[in-house]
Amino acid sequence: MDINNIDVKKEVKIVFMGTPEFAVPILQGLIEHYSVRAVVTQPDKPVGRNGQIAKPPIKRLAEENTILVLQPPKLKEEWETIIALRPTLIITCAYGQILPRELLVYPTFGCINVHASLLPKLRGGAPIHHAIIDGHKKTGITIMHMSPKMDQGDMIAQTEIPIEDTDTASTLHDKLKILGRDLLLEVLPSIIDGTAPRVKQEESEATYGFNITREDEKIDFSKTKRHVYNRVRGLNSWPGAYTRLEGKVIKVWECYMTEETYPNLIDGQITKLYADGIGVKVSNGEVVFTVIQPEGKTKMKAIDFINGFQNKELLKGKIFEA
């Protein structure tokens, strides 16, 4: 079935449910090829230090295209408004609320989700972060039928990409959001004409990538240099990995590993001041912090932080707290 066929556009009435930047290309692709009757997204919320109220990225795109926007604080109590729109297909991507059963069973063509992992690996709300943190070599997109249980529905299609050693959560996010758009547009015709496959997930292979907690953000210097390196990359550009120096929080945005070993130093101890950063002892060697953010300040090169000390020798031997 050709997605540019006008009959397809007429017969499919889509309600799209999503919230963050990741979902924007996916909604844009739907707008260009199909009839999107409404967008459901999370309520506006305060952001930044000033607490200024901001619209979700998906709401901004919908308004630019004069599409109806619904923002129920509690979807389970307000699902009738969506049913009243008589959608024939509901598509979700990083929406942020559980869909009640009434919505799951209503649309003729079903409820479809775009998930940023190779299910059943990394079910949950932060699969991109965890793919890097957990050291995965590849990830991808899964298009799936939704079910009452989180990310456990039958799979329709998958596509994968390698995770490069230089990837961060930010770069991987940007790759996957385009991959998600393209795969969804590729498989939608088969979903509409009823020929799309339904492949059950293998429960014994399931893993989880739950939303990032404050504990997840903490750097543990008793772990390996690869572990620390992956955590820093996996939390860049949000929310950031952190440690403490003399009681003050320091976020670490970029680092690299060296071949140096310091068996006589304590984990977390500053090993050496490099031309591009701060060397730190970990269990099996050293990482070098190159971009950091001291408490109350903006991101900076670690060398600028070093140069802020009149006596740089005072930094040597200090210990970052796990």
Structural class: alpha+beta
Poorly predicted spans: 1-6
What percent of residues adopt helix (DSSP H or I)?
25-40%
> What's the overall geometry?
elongated
Instruction: Please give the largest β-sheet.
Output: 7 strands, mixed
Rounded mean pLDDT score: 93
* Beta fraction: 25-35%
SSE arrangement, N to C: HEHEEEHEHHEHEHEEHHHEEEEEEHE
Instruction: Walk across the major sheet and give the strand order.
Output: 5-2-1-6-7-8-9
Helical segment tally?
Answer: 11
Number of strands: 16
Could you give the distance between the termini? 56 Å
Radius of gyration: 23 Å
What's the topology here?
Blueprint: H1 6-11, E1 13-18, H2 24-33, E2 35-40, E3 45-47, E4 52-54, H3 57-64, E5 68-70, H4 75-78, H5 80-83, E6 89-93, H6 101-104, E7 111-115, H7 127-133, E8 138-145, E9 155-162, H8 169-193, H9 214-217, H10 225-234, E10 241-245, E11 248-257, E12 270-273, E13 278-282, E14 285-294, E15 300-301, H11 302-307, E16 320-321
Parallel strand pairs: 1-2, 1-6, 2-5, 6-7
Antiparallel strand pairs: 3-4, 7-8, 8-9, 10-11, 10-16, 11-14, 12-13, 13-14, 14-15
Helix pairs in contact: 2-8, 7-10
Provide structural commentary.
The protein has 322 residues and is of the alpha+beta class. 27% of the residues lie in helices and 26% in strands. The protein contains eleven helices and 16 strands. It has helices at 6-11, 24-33, 57-64, 75-78, 80-83, 101-104, 127-133, 169-193, 214-217, 225-234, 302-307, and strands spanning 13-18, 35-40, 45-47, 52-54, 68-70, 89-93, 111-115, 138-145, 155-162, 241-245, 248-257, 270-273, 278-282, 285-294, 300-301, 320-321. A seven-stranded mixed beta sheet has the order 5-2-1-6-7-8-9. The longest helix has 25 residues, at 169-193. The model is unreliable at 1-6 (pLDDT under 50).
